[in-house]
C-alpha cells in the first residue's frame, strides 16, 4: 500500500485512474479537491478539514462482477464502523452511498472502475464547517461534538475496516448494513427516467444490494442506477 498526499488536487479518484502502475490499496489523500464529483456527476464539495481520499482495489478473477456491485455498500458500512471507533454516534447508512448523522449528510462515496481496478473515493466532513451549496443539509463531526480530529487516523481506520468487511461473509455484512438503514420505513418517491413511479415505503436492502420498496401493498426491488429517490 502506497500513500500519495496532496495539499490540493483536482480529483483523488482521477489521480488513481491515471496511474499506470497501480497497486492494490494504493491510497491518495488530499486536503482540498477542486474537481470532485459524486454519483451522476453531481458536484462534490471538497473543502479543507474534510477527509478526502481514494484507494484502489485490484479485481480478483474468483469474484464476480455482481459481487463487486456491492462495493458502495461495503464501503458505506466500513466508513460507519470506522467512525464509530472514533466517535460512537448515531450514524445511518443511506442507500447506496451516503452516511448520515442527525438527518444530515456526513459522508459521500463514489466507486468507479478502471481497467482491472475499482477506485473507491470517500469524502467525510470531519473538521470543516463550510459545506458550500449543501450548508443546510450537511454536518461534520466537529459540528456535532466540538472536537478536533486527526484526519489521517480516521482514513486509515476506515481502510482497515474496509479490508475486514470485504473479506466477511456477505450475509453478515448485509445484516449490519440493514441495522443502520436510514431509509427504512420512510416514505419516498421513486422517479425513473424523470417519470414518477409513485410513492412507496422503503424497506430492507435486499440480498443483491437492491432496495425493497413497498408500493400499493406490493414489494418491488429497485437498483440505484435505474431510479432516483425523492423524499
Structure description:
Its EC number is 6.3.4.15. InterPro entries: aa-tRNA-synth_II/BPL/LPL (IPR045864), Biotin_CoA_COase_ligase (IPR004408), BPL_C (IPR003142), BPL_LPL_catalytic (IPR004143), Transcriptional_repressor_C (IPR008988). Residues 1-170 form the BPL/LPL catalytic domain. With 231 residues, this protein is an alpha+beta fold. The protein has six helices and twelve strands. The protein has helices spanning 12-17, 65-68, 71-86, 141-145, 151-166, 170-179, and strands spanning 3-9, 27-33, 50-58, 91-94, 98-101, 104-114, 117-125, 187-192, 195-205, 211-215, 218-222, 228-230. It is globular. The mean pLDDT is 92.
Quick structural gist:
It contains 6 helices and 12 strands. With 231 residues, the protein is of the alpha+beta class. InterPro entries: aa-tRNA-synth_II/BPL/LPL, Biotin_CoA_COase_ligase, BPL_C, BPL_LPL_catalytic, Transcriptional_repressor_C.
Amino acid at each position: 500500500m502506497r500513500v500519495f498526499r496532496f495539499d490540493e488536487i483536482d480529483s483523488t479518484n482521477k489521480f488513481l485512474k491515471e496511474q499506470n502502475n497501480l497497486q492494490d490499496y494504493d491510497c491518495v489523500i488530499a486536503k482540498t479537491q477542486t474537481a470532485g464529483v459524486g454519483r451522476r456527476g453531481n458536484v462534490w464539495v471538497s473543502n479543507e478539514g474534510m477527509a478526502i481520499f481514494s484507494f484502489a482495489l485490484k479485481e480478483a478473477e474468483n469474484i464476480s462482477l455482481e459481487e463487486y456491485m456491492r462495493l458502495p455498500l461495503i464501503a458505506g458500512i466500513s466508513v460507519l464502523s470506522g467512525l464509530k471507533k472514533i466517535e460512537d454516534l448515531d450514524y445511518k447508512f443511506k442507500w447506496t452511498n451516503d452516511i448520515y448523522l442527525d438527518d444530515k449528510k456526513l459522508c459521500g462515496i463514489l466507486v468507479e472502475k478502471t481497467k482491472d481496478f475499482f477506485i473507491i473515493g470517500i469524502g467525510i466532513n470531519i473538521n470543516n464547517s463550510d459545506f458550500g451549496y449543501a450548508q443546510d443539509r450537511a454536518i461534520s463531526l466537529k459540528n456535532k461534538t466540538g472536537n478536533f480530529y486527526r484526519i489521517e487516523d480516521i482514513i486509515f481506520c476506515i481502510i482497515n475496516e474496509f479490508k475486514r468487511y470485504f473479506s466477511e461473509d456477505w450475509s453478515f455484512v448485509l445484516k449490519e448494513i440493514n441495522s443502520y438503514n436510514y431509509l427504512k420505513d420512510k416514505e419516498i418517491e421513486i422517479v425513473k427516467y424523470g417519470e414518477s413511479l409513485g410513492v412507496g415505503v422503503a424497506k430492507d436492502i435486499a440480498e443483491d444490494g437492491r432496495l425493497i420498496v413497498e408500493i400499493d401493498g406490493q414489494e418491488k426491488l429497485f437498483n440505484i442506477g435505474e431510479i432516483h429517490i425523492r423524499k
